[in-house]
């Protein structure tokens, strides 16, 4: 047993690791009964001195969660490889609508990174020319609103996964309306998506004239 300090060691250094938690992924390998097993890992932060501080010599191809190593130029120290949690936002709505008629904004938030997106949040500030009618949150998420601002807590998005929020509104004036939604996460990613809808005047139906029979005087 040796207690000698190696040149690559970092004694008396704050590791900047999270508490042991389920950060996703099964244990690489199986339990004694052959079933899959999830382990707790200490997630790295970007400020951790363990990031890109290991060696590629004999570095496993994945970390304990199954995330490919290395994510940067060099493997991280420890069982956790810090990946990316890059968000993308796609927002859609009808190209045109009639004034005072309800329509729906569909907002899809995707984690296009290699790691989990934690504490993912979506914020949409409804324009003053619109009235908020209804919000549909995806399963496992919660949405609320304060005034015109809709906030949805989407939670954890694993790599490649998405969640979709639907916001129903009506327009109060004609013209073009631009609406933007922004997603953020604990990993520092931020992305926005916007869409422009043209609001047209209401359709005025012409009144039908009543048919009258001819009259005769004599």
Our measurement of the CA-to-CA distance between the termini, rounded to an integer number of angstroms, reads: 131 Å
The gyration radius over C-alpha positions equals: 28 Å
Q: Report the count of strand segments.
A: 12
- Proportion of residues in helical segments: under 10%
What spatial form do the alpha-carbon principal axes imply? elongated
Proportion of strand residues:
35-45%
Profile the largest sheet: 6 strands, mixed
* Number of helices, counting only DSSP H or I runs of 4 residues or more: 0
Residue-averaged pLDDT, rounded?
88
Order of helices and strands: EEEEEEEEEEEE
Find the structural class using helix and strand composition.
mainly beta
* Parts with pLDDT < 50 across at least 5 consecutive residues: none
Spatially, the strands of the biggest sheet line up as 4-12-11-6-9-8
Fold topology:
Layout: E1 17-21, E2 41-44, E3 87-92, E4 96-98, E5 102-111, E6 117-125, E7 130-136, E8 142-146, E9 149-157, E10 162-171, E11 175-184, E12 190-200
Parallel strand pairs: 4-12
Antiparallel strand pairs: 1-2, 3-5, 5-10, 6-9, 6-11, 7-10, 8-9, 11-12
């Amino acid at each position: 047993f040796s207690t000698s300090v190696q040149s690559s060691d970092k004694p008396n250094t704050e590791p900047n690791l999270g508490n042991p938690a389920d950060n996703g992924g099964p244990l690489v390998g199986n339990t004694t009964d052959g079933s899959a097993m999830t382990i707790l890992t200490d997630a790295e932060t970007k400020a951790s001195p363990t990031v890109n501080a290991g060696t590629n010599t004999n570095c496993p191809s994945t970390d304990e969660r199954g995330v490919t190593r290395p994510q940067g130029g060099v493997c991280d120290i420890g069982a956790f490889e810090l990946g990316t949690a890059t968000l993308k936002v796609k927002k859609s709505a009808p190209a045109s609508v009639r004034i005072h008629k309800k329509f729906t904004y569909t907002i899809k938030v995707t984690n296009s990174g290699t790691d989990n997106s934690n504490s993912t949040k979506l914020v949409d500030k409804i324009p003053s020319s619109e009235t908020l009618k209804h919000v549909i949150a995806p399963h496992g998420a919660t949405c609320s609103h304060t005034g015109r601002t809709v906030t949805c807590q989407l939670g954890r998005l694993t790599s490649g996964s998405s969640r979709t929020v639907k916001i129903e509104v009506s327009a109060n004036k004609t013209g073009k309306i631009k609406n933007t939604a922004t997603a953020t996460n604990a990993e520092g990613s931020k992305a926005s998506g916007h869409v422009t809808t043209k609001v047209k005047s209401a359709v005025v139906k012409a009144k039908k004239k009543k048919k009258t029979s001819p009259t005769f005087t004599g």
